[in-house]
Amino acid sequence: DLGKYSDGFVEGEMFATYKSEEELSQSVRELLNNPEQTMQMGQAARKMVLDRYSKEKQWSRFQEIISSIN
């Protein structure tokens, strides 16, 4: 659907949206018929999540928050 997605996710590059049941069906068919595109979308989304939410980045952000409290 056209809902709110987390920052970093890019429509068309990492996921597909739809406005109606017909668009949903069409999108699913297109992705099933294009496994290379589907794989690329999944890989791009996975890379973004791993980069953005790595343990190192989480730890760094945690330290920033703690520092701002003092």
Provide structural commentary.
- The protein is an all-alpha fold.
- The chain is 66% helix and 0% strand.
- The protein has helices at 21-33, 35-52, 55-69.
- The radius of gyration is 17 Å and the shape is elongated.
- The N and C termini lie far apart (42 Å).
- The model has no long low-confidence stretch (mean pLDDT 89).
Tell me the span between the first and last alpha carbons.
42 Å
Major sheet summary line: none
Number of helices: 3
The percentage helix is 55-70%
General shape: elongated
In a few lines, what is going on in this structure?
With 70 residues, this protein is an all-alpha fold. The protein is 66% helix and 0% strand.
Topology readout:
Blueprint: H1 21-33, H2 35-52, H3 55-69
